[in-house]
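Task: encode each sequence below as structure tokens.

Item 1
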Amino acid sequence: MPDTRLRKKKIRALLIISVLLLLIYAKNLIERQSFRSISSTFTEVYNDRLVVVGYIFEISESLFQIQKLVDHCNLDYDYSKVLNEIQGQEAAILTIIEDFEKTKLTPKEEEYLGEFKKIIVNDLNIKSYDLLYSDSNGVNINQVKLYDQKISLARKDLDNLNNIQLEEGEKLISKAKVLINRSQIWAQFEVALLIILIIVMFLLVFRKSEETKGMI
């Protein structure tokens, strides 16, 4: 009879230990997935937000150079060279936009980036410098104003794109914080399981030794 009771206790203890080990293993799997999610989130923050902020800054600088060349078209300057400079800045912007389009875009980003690209391709594509200035008529004020208006619209799109980076960046950081806090909770859960496991094994060994003494 004592042997049967001892055997049942051992089986019960082994079952408890097995369950605890399975829980620890499951926790490790969940935590591994959590760390992958955290890593993916920070990669997204860098590739799709911080890098994009750099793109927006570079585009803004090129746009500023275009506006400067357009607004100072009455200066004594090599007109053909100015036109080449404007076209060069526009080409640089379009190259950056290509890289921008390869990132993970939100629907709003696609909208603003599409509008911005149309302005650069359709509205600021200056075919001839005579549209801005000629020796006979001087500065074409209406055309310069029109270009300035288009540049202002382009800047608004850039501002909107920049604001999206801040908003999306904050969302990703908040997501990372949630994942980190969850990971800390799982770590505490694992510690609790290990303590229970140690207690169960201690009781198993202690009771076994006590029962062995009793039999002697």
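Item 2
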Amino acid sequence: MYPIVYLNGQYLPKEEADLNVADLAILRGFGIFDYFRYADGKPRFIEDHLDRFLRSAELLDLKMPASRDELRDAVHELIKRNGEPSGGIRFVLTGGYSPDGYTPTNPNLVAMAYPFQAPSAEQYEQGVSIHLHHYERQLPEVKSIDYLEGIRIQPMLKAKGADYSLYVDRDYNVRESDRSNFMIVRDGVLITPADNILLGITRKHLLRLARKLDIYVDERPVSVNELKNADEVIICSSTKGAMAITKVDGKVVGDGKPGPITRQLMEAWTEYVG
């Protein structure tokens, strides 16, 4: 984390930015967040991320203590005060200090800046391995701070030699990862779920980019069987951009290398984000 933190309208050294232990984020894991990258001092897709952050607060009935303009100003000021041209910004809105340990009160608003470490060049060149895991997130359209399941299964993923998981629902449709969305390619068509998921900002812009490249896009459910028999599989997020999945539960996808549409999106993404 970079040294200066935003807390409820103040800019403080991170050592002085304290929250009371009565906060529902600590007691119950109740709160929301959003995260986005910035480069050359410019935040990436900031308006999209503010839209999602404000929407998550609305869906959990959390009163946002700052206006949209104030949130945007805090981002730019945090970048300026930390003096680092690139990194990531994380907003967190907590449930507030609860007198009974259960009832939300006035939320605390925190923003932190971090150094950004990109995935390895090897992962982009060779792709990553994923494990299918049966799990459905509560309120998937909310970017909640509750990552209990994603963190709990990390030792299992390591034991299986998987880099990431993809969540499978009760109908054996694949929805999303804990921190990413995914897409498949079948017969030249880019297919991705659109319901009961967190609609990622990178996902949104990759689909927009695909259409500009005349790649046909189909937003619909993707079954486990369809995923395992896809020509290409892509995982995407703010930290990854677009990256190939080349192995699903030990089964090789395609020829085991990033496919042509995946490579096309990966190469075009660099120019798209500037």
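Check on item 2: Residues 23 and 52 are 23 Å apart (CA to CA). The domain at 121-272 is CATH 3.20.10.10 (D-amino Acid Aminotransferase; Chain A, domain 2).
End of task.
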